[in-house]
Specification:
Elements (H helix, E strand, L loop, with lengths): L2 H6 L4 H13 L3 H11 L5 E2 H8 L3 H13 L3 E6 L2 E6 L3 H12 L18 E4 L5 H14 L11 H7 L5 E6 L2 E10 L9 E8 L8 H15 L4 E6 L4 H9 L3 E12 L2 E11 L2 H4 L15
Parallel strand pairs: 7-8
Antiparallel strand pairs: 1-3, 2-3, 4-5, 5-6, 6-7, 8-10, 9-10
Length: 296
Protein backbone atom coordinates (compact mmCIF):
# COMPACT_ATOMS: atom_id res chain seq x y z
CA UNK A 1 0.00 0.00 0.00
CA UNK A 2 1.41 3.39 -0.98
CA UNK A 3 1.41 6.39 1.42
CA UNK A 4 -1.35 7.92 -0.71
CA UNK A 5 -3.47 4.77 -0.44
CA UNK A 6 -2.89 4.65 3.31
CA UNK A 7 -3.87 8.31 3.68
CA UNK A 8 -7.10 7.66 1.83
CA UNK A 9 -7.96 5.01 4.42
CA UNK A 10 -7.15 7.16 7.46
CA UNK A 11 -9.94 7.58 9.98
CA UNK A 12 -11.54 11.01 9.36
CA UNK A 13 -10.94 13.57 12.09
CA UNK A 14 -14.67 14.04 12.76
CA UNK A 15 -15.14 10.29 13.24
CA UNK A 16 -12.11 10.13 15.53
CA UNK A 17 -13.53 12.94 17.66
CA UNK A 18 -16.90 11.20 17.90
CA UNK A 19 -15.40 7.85 18.89
CA UNK A 20 -13.06 9.54 21.38
CA UNK A 21 -16.10 11.09 23.08
CA UNK A 22 -17.77 7.68 23.31
CA UNK A 23 -14.67 6.00 24.72
CA UNK A 24 -13.98 8.89 27.11
CA UNK A 25 -17.49 8.55 28.49
CA UNK A 26 -16.77 4.90 29.26
CA UNK A 27 -13.38 5.63 30.87
CA UNK A 28 -15.22 5.67 34.21
CA UNK A 29 -15.78 2.06 35.44
CA UNK A 30 -19.02 3.00 37.18
CA UNK A 31 -20.52 4.06 33.85
CA UNK A 32 -19.46 0.79 32.27
CA UNK A 33 -21.23 -1.13 35.07
CA UNK A 34 -24.34 1.02 34.74
CA UNK A 35 -24.44 0.66 30.96
CA UNK A 36 -24.11 -3.11 31.28
CA UNK A 37 -27.02 -3.32 33.73
CA UNK A 38 -29.20 -1.11 31.52
CA UNK A 39 -28.31 -3.02 28.35
CA UNK A 40 -29.10 -6.39 29.93
CA UNK A 41 -32.39 -5.27 31.49
CA UNK A 42 -35.45 -5.88 29.27
CA UNK A 43 -37.33 -2.66 28.55
CA UNK A 44 -36.33 0.06 30.98
CA UNK A 45 -35.30 0.46 34.61
CA UNK A 46 -35.90 3.28 37.06
CA UNK A 47 -33.02 5.29 38.44
CA UNK A 48 -33.87 4.05 41.93
CA UNK A 49 -33.87 0.40 40.86
CA UNK A 50 -30.59 0.95 39.06
CA UNK A 51 -29.01 2.51 42.16
CA UNK A 52 -30.15 -0.43 44.27
CA UNK A 53 -28.78 -2.93 41.75
CA UNK A 54 -25.27 -1.46 41.64
CA UNK A 55 -25.39 -0.40 45.31
CA UNK A 56 -24.42 3.20 44.59
CA UNK A 57 -26.12 6.33 45.91
CA UNK A 58 -28.86 7.62 43.61
CA UNK A 59 -27.35 11.13 43.14
CA UNK A 60 -24.12 9.50 41.93
CA UNK A 61 -26.03 7.24 39.57
CA UNK A 62 -27.96 10.22 38.18
CA UNK A 63 -24.70 12.06 37.52
CA UNK A 64 -23.28 9.18 35.50
CA UNK A 65 -26.55 8.63 33.65
CA UNK A 66 -26.50 12.23 32.42
CA UNK A 67 -23.03 11.59 30.98
CA UNK A 68 -24.22 8.42 29.26
CA UNK A 69 -27.27 10.22 27.91
CA UNK A 70 -25.17 13.13 26.59
CA UNK A 71 -23.43 10.85 24.09
CA UNK A 72 -26.60 8.90 23.35
CA UNK A 73 -25.82 5.57 24.98
CA UNK A 74 -29.05 5.69 27.01
CA UNK A 75 -32.38 7.47 26.96
CA UNK A 76 -33.97 9.07 30.03
CA UNK A 77 -37.76 9.28 30.12
CA UNK A 78 -39.81 10.95 32.82
CA UNK A 79 -42.76 8.82 33.96
CA UNK A 80 -44.66 10.59 36.70
CA UNK A 81 -42.15 11.33 39.44
CA UNK A 82 -39.78 8.59 38.28
CA UNK A 83 -37.14 8.61 35.55
CA UNK A 84 -36.90 5.48 33.44
CA UNK A 85 -33.60 4.56 31.81
CA UNK A 86 -33.31 2.46 28.63
CA UNK A 87 -30.52 1.53 26.29
CA UNK A 88 -30.39 3.31 22.95
CA UNK A 89 -30.68 0.26 20.66
CA UNK A 90 -28.73 1.93 17.85
CA UNK A 91 -25.68 2.02 20.13
CA UNK A 92 -25.77 -1.75 20.48
CA UNK A 93 -24.22 -1.82 17.00
CA UNK A 94 -22.67 1.65 16.85
CA UNK A 95 -20.31 1.23 19.78
CA UNK A 96 -18.93 -2.21 18.78
CA UNK A 97 -18.42 -1.04 15.20
CA UNK A 98 -16.54 2.04 16.41
CA UNK A 99 -14.11 -0.27 18.20
CA UNK A 100 -13.83 -2.45 15.08
CA UNK A 101 -13.03 0.58 12.93
CA UNK A 102 -10.38 1.91 15.30
CA UNK A 103 -8.73 -1.53 15.47
CA UNK A 104 -8.73 -1.85 11.68
CA UNK A 105 -11.13 -4.77 11.58
CA UNK A 106 -13.74 -2.77 9.68
CA UNK A 107 -13.17 -0.07 7.08
CA UNK A 108 -14.33 3.39 8.10
CA UNK A 109 -15.83 3.82 4.63
CA UNK A 110 -17.29 0.41 3.77
CA UNK A 111 -18.49 0.11 0.21
CA UNK A 112 -16.90 -2.06 -2.41
CA UNK A 113 -13.29 -2.95 -3.23
CA UNK A 114 -11.89 -1.00 -6.17
CA UNK A 115 -8.48 -2.65 -6.58
CA UNK A 116 -9.87 -5.61 -8.50
CA UNK A 117 -7.43 -7.99 -10.21
CA UNK A 118 -7.07 -7.28 -13.92
CA UNK A 119 -6.55 -10.95 -14.79
CA UNK A 120 -9.78 -12.21 -13.19
CA UNK A 121 -13.18 -11.87 -14.86
CA UNK A 122 -16.65 -12.76 -13.58
CA UNK A 123 -19.73 -13.94 -15.43
CA UNK A 124 -23.10 -15.57 -14.68
CA UNK A 125 -22.85 -19.20 -13.63
CA UNK A 126 -24.12 -21.70 -16.20
CA UNK A 127 -25.34 -25.23 -15.56
CA UNK A 128 -22.24 -26.44 -17.39
CA UNK A 129 -20.14 -24.91 -14.59
CA UNK A 130 -21.79 -26.87 -11.80
CA UNK A 131 -19.37 -29.80 -11.74
CA UNK A 132 -16.42 -27.41 -11.40
CA UNK A 133 -18.37 -25.38 -8.84
CA UNK A 134 -18.93 -28.54 -6.81
CA UNK A 135 -15.22 -29.34 -7.02
CA UNK A 136 -14.29 -25.89 -5.67
CA UNK A 137 -16.95 -26.27 -2.99
CA UNK A 138 -15.30 -29.52 -1.89
CA UNK A 139 -11.91 -27.81 -1.71
CA UNK A 140 -13.40 -25.18 0.60
CA UNK A 141 -14.95 -27.84 2.81
CA UNK A 142 -11.55 -29.52 3.10
CA UNK A 143 -10.07 -26.44 4.78
CA UNK A 144 -12.31 -27.00 7.80
CA UNK A 145 -13.05 -23.29 8.15
CA UNK A 146 -15.45 -22.61 5.29
CA UNK A 147 -18.76 -24.27 6.19
CA UNK A 148 -20.52 -26.71 8.49
CA UNK A 149 -21.10 -28.93 5.45
CA UNK A 150 -18.95 -32.05 5.37
CA UNK A 151 -19.55 -32.87 1.71
CA UNK A 152 -20.61 -30.84 -1.30
CA UNK A 153 -24.20 -31.26 -2.51
CA UNK A 154 -24.73 -32.93 -5.86
CA UNK A 155 -25.08 -30.79 -8.97
CA UNK A 156 -28.87 -31.18 -9.11
CA UNK A 157 -29.13 -29.74 -5.60
CA UNK A 158 -26.81 -26.88 -6.50
CA UNK A 159 -28.84 -26.09 -9.61
CA UNK A 160 -31.92 -25.29 -7.51
CA UNK A 161 -30.22 -23.92 -4.39
CA UNK A 162 -29.59 -20.36 -5.52
CA UNK A 163 -31.65 -17.37 -6.60
CA UNK A 164 -31.79 -17.06 -10.41
CA UNK A 165 -29.64 -14.19 -11.60
CA UNK A 166 -27.53 -14.19 -8.44
CA UNK A 167 -24.94 -16.88 -9.06
CA UNK A 168 -21.52 -16.10 -10.54
CA UNK A 169 -18.21 -17.68 -11.44
CA UNK A 170 -14.76 -16.17 -11.73
CA UNK A 171 -12.37 -17.10 -14.51
CA UNK A 172 -8.59 -16.75 -14.79
CA UNK A 173 -6.34 -18.15 -17.48
CA UNK A 174 -9.38 -19.65 -19.18
CA UNK A 175 -10.52 -21.70 -16.18
CA UNK A 176 -13.21 -21.31 -13.52
CA UNK A 177 -11.38 -20.48 -10.28
CA UNK A 178 -14.19 -19.48 -7.94
CA UNK A 179 -17.88 -18.94 -7.51
CA UNK A 180 -20.36 -16.85 -5.54
CA UNK A 181 -24.08 -17.38 -5.10
CA UNK A 182 -27.03 -16.14 -3.08
CA UNK A 183 -29.89 -18.23 -1.70
CA UNK A 184 -33.19 -17.10 -0.23
CA UNK A 185 -33.31 -17.00 3.57
CA UNK A 186 -37.07 -17.59 3.66
CA UNK A 187 -40.03 -18.44 1.45
CA UNK A 188 -42.09 -15.68 3.09
CA UNK A 189 -42.82 -12.77 0.78
CA UNK A 190 -41.62 -10.21 3.32
CA UNK A 191 -38.09 -11.63 3.06
CA UNK A 192 -37.96 -11.72 -0.73
CA UNK A 193 -35.11 -9.21 -0.81
CA UNK A 194 -32.96 -10.94 1.82
CA UNK A 195 -30.38 -13.51 0.77
CA UNK A 196 -27.66 -15.70 2.26
CA UNK A 197 -24.41 -15.48 0.32
CA UNK A 198 -21.51 -17.85 -0.30
CA UNK A 199 -18.10 -17.25 -1.88
CA UNK A 200 -15.57 -20.00 -2.65
CA UNK A 201 -12.16 -19.81 -4.35
CA UNK A 202 -10.28 -22.74 -5.87
CA UNK A 203 -7.35 -24.04 -3.87
CA UNK A 204 -4.71 -22.98 -6.40
CA UNK A 205 -6.17 -19.53 -7.00
CA UNK A 206 -6.31 -18.15 -3.49
CA UNK A 207 -4.52 -14.92 -2.66
CA UNK A 208 -4.83 -13.32 -6.09
CA UNK A 209 -8.05 -11.37 -5.61
CA UNK A 210 -10.54 -13.90 -6.96
CA UNK A 211 -12.76 -13.60 -3.88
CA UNK A 212 -12.64 -9.82 -4.10
CA UNK A 213 -13.73 -9.87 -7.75
CA UNK A 214 -16.55 -12.30 -7.00
CA UNK A 215 -17.83 -10.38 -4.01
CA UNK A 216 -17.73 -7.12 -5.93
CA UNK A 217 -19.86 -8.67 -8.68
CA UNK A 218 -22.20 -10.22 -6.15
CA UNK A 219 -22.94 -7.09 -4.11
CA UNK A 220 -23.18 -4.67 -7.03
CA UNK A 221 -25.55 -6.99 -8.89
CA UNK A 222 -27.58 -7.49 -5.70
CA UNK A 223 -27.91 -3.73 -5.27
CA UNK A 224 -29.50 -3.41 -8.71
CA UNK A 225 -31.18 -6.80 -8.84
CA UNK A 226 -33.84 -6.61 -6.16
CA UNK A 227 -31.90 -7.77 -3.10
CA UNK A 228 -31.85 -5.19 -0.31
CA UNK A 229 -29.96 -7.18 2.31
CA UNK A 230 -27.25 -9.83 2.10
CA UNK A 231 -26.14 -11.90 5.05
CA UNK A 232 -23.48 -14.51 5.62
CA UNK A 233 -21.91 -16.49 8.45
CA UNK A 234 -18.13 -16.88 8.71
CA UNK A 235 -16.07 -18.88 11.18
CA UNK A 236 -14.07 -16.50 13.43
CA UNK A 237 -10.91 -18.39 12.45
CA UNK A 238 -11.44 -17.39 8.82
CA UNK A 239 -9.83 -13.95 9.16
CA UNK A 240 -9.36 -13.57 5.41
CA UNK A 241 -13.06 -14.19 4.82
CA UNK A 242 -14.06 -11.66 7.45
CA UNK A 243 -11.75 -9.01 6.01
CA UNK A 244 -13.01 -9.69 2.49
CA UNK A 245 -16.64 -9.17 3.49
CA UNK A 246 -15.84 -6.02 5.48
CA UNK A 247 -14.23 -4.55 2.37
CA UNK A 248 -17.48 -5.10 0.50
CA UNK A 249 -19.55 -3.23 3.07
CA UNK A 250 -20.67 -6.11 5.29
CA UNK A 251 -20.85 -5.26 8.97
CA UNK A 252 -20.51 -7.61 11.89
CA UNK A 253 -23.88 -8.16 13.54
CA UNK A 254 -22.55 -10.42 16.26
CA UNK A 255 -20.96 -13.72 17.19
CA UNK A 256 -23.24 -16.74 17.43
CA UNK A 257 -21.50 -18.79 20.09
CA UNK A 258 -21.60 -22.59 19.91
CA UNK A 259 -24.18 -22.39 17.14
CA UNK A 260 -23.55 -25.93 15.82
CA UNK A 261 -21.21 -28.90 16.03
CA UNK A 262 -18.59 -29.45 13.35
CA UNK A 263 -16.55 -32.64 13.28
CA UNK A 264 -17.52 -33.32 16.88
CA UNK A 265 -16.82 -29.90 18.39
CA UNK A 266 -18.88 -26.79 18.92
CA UNK A 267 -18.09 -23.88 16.60
CA UNK A 268 -18.91 -20.16 16.70
CA UNK A 269 -19.85 -18.12 13.65
CA UNK A 270 -19.68 -14.40 12.95
CA UNK A 271 -22.94 -13.13 11.45
CA UNK A 272 -22.43 -10.34 8.92
CA UNK A 273 -24.87 -8.38 6.83
CA UNK A 274 -24.77 -5.80 4.06
CA UNK A 275 -27.71 -3.55 3.30
CA UNK A 276 -28.22 -1.87 -0.04
CA UNK A 277 -26.82 1.66 0.14
CA UNK A 278 -24.42 0.82 2.97
CA UNK A 279 -21.60 2.85 1.48
CA UNK A 280 -23.51 6.12 1.49
CA UNK A 281 -25.73 5.64 4.52
CA UNK A 282 -23.39 4.45 7.24
CA UNK A 283 -20.00 5.66 6.15
CA UNK A 284 -19.61 8.54 8.58
CA UNK A 285 -20.05 8.86 12.31
CA UNK A 286 -22.54 11.37 13.65
CA UNK A 287 -23.34 12.94 16.99
CA UNK A 288 -25.19 10.70 19.42
CA UNK A 289 -26.65 13.65 21.27
CA UNK A 290 -29.92 13.44 19.34
CA UNK A 291 -30.48 9.82 20.31
CA UNK A 292 -28.83 8.34 17.24
CA UNK A 293 -25.76 6.20 17.65
CA UNK A 294 -24.61 5.34 14.12
CA UNK A 295 -23.40 1.92 13.11
CA UNK A 296 -20.40 3.61 11.47
Amino acid sequence: MTPLDHAARLLPQTDAETYAAWFACLAEPTRVRLLHVIATTPGSISVGELADTVEIRQPTVSHHLRKLADVGFVTLTKVGTSTRVAINPACCTGLPHAADIVMGVLDARPCCPTDLPADVTTRPMADADLERVREIYSQGIATGDATFETRAPDTDSLRTAWIPGHRWVAEADGAVVGWAAASAVSTREAYAGVAETSVYVAEGARGRGVGKALLYRQVTEADTGGLWMLQTSVFPENRAGLALHHQAGFRTVGVRERIARHHGRWRDTVLLERRRGTGSETGTAASCGDGECPSA
